[in-house]
TrEMBL record, chains A, B:
SUPFAM superfamilies: S-adenosyl-L-methionine-dependent methyltransferases. InterPro entries: MnmM_MeTrfase, SAM-dependent_MTases_sf. This is SAM-dependent methyltransferase. GO terms for molecular function: methyltransferase activity. Keywords: Methyltransferase, Transferase. It comes from the Bacteria. GO terms for biological process: methylation. Pfam families: rRNA_methylase. Signal peptide: none annotated.
Length: 175, 175
């Protein structure tokens, strides 16, 4: 993220969760940039609001308590986006039954792709170990694998010698 | 490499090729460090010697014109190694019939593992697109996947949406 996001950029935290990435992104974009953060869970919005207040970064962030599949309704079509981050799966410390899903995740990814500037980056941390995770991980991987290489460069980072199922990272960069 | 290699370190270029990595490593280890470089091909040793002379870095590098499977005979068992780099496949601009092979590659990797310091790193750039490449790529991947996660962390980086077969990178880090 810090290689791509500069002060003044408009970025998206598609799953604010406990707000760690939101705070980090808000610092990177600075007072002249903006972060739109989405999360369907009240607990996530509350935790992130608190984390942003504590860091005095609330003024450069808009939080939306709704699923990221509604992103296209909230972010103007002509709003250039520099970076978007997805932490898939469930909210750490929250209800493990409430998970991101393939269709809504990919709806949000596509909406961001339409707004992504050249060299803009979508980062997905993909968990496959929880119930429902493997299905989503496969859907996201299939989608990313089939992106036109002339339009997007897709890099996968994964730990390959772990007994348990570690998350992997997908980086989709617009050419 | 630059996150791991510091001045004074002892490192290995297991396939010096045209000398790009050798020069880069020699700069990183500085006058107090050392690089051992291996390549079976005279043309590679010649090109690397020339590149090192040009950069005035020859004094911190020893070049060995032999396959990297002989590494254990040339590097003392008690010599701590901080980093080793393999560019598998054939020499760019050279004879495409002369390629690295699974057995000799893994012999060298194992010899380095025995000398690797904590947080030390083996980096392999693995090409699968040339004749013989897929077999080697599979052997290296199988080997790395089965390394004990308590001893080594193995990270794979790969482009996943390319029509042609791109190289992938394996990073084996000692815990």
């Amino acid at each position: 993220m810090n290689q791509v996001v500069n002060p003044g950029d408009h970025v998206i935290d598609a799953t604010v969760g406990n707000g760690h990435d939101t705070v980090y992104l808000a610092k990177l974009v600075g007072t002249t940039g903006h972060v739109d953060g989405f999360d369907i869970q009240p607990a996530a919005i509350k935790a992130t609001t608190s984390a942003l207040d504590k860091a005095a970064l609330s003024h450069q962030v808009t939080l939306w308590q709704m699923g990221h599949e509604h992103l296209a309704d909230k972010i103007a079509t002509d709003q250039p986006i520099k970076c978007a981050v997805f932490n898939l799966g469930y909210l750490p410390g929250g209800d493990k039954q409430i998970i991101t899903k393939p269709t809504t995740t990919l709806t949000a990814v596509k909406a961001i792709q339409e707004r992504l500037v050249t060299n803009g980056l979508i980062i997905l941390l993909v968990y496959a170990g929880h119930p429902g995770g493997a299905t989503e991980a496969q859907a996201v991987l299939d989608y990313a694998t089939n992106l036109d290489q002339h339009q997007f460069q897709v890099l996968q980072y994964q730990f390959i010698n772990q007994v348990h199922v570690p998350p992997y990272l997908l980086a989709i960069q617009k050419r």
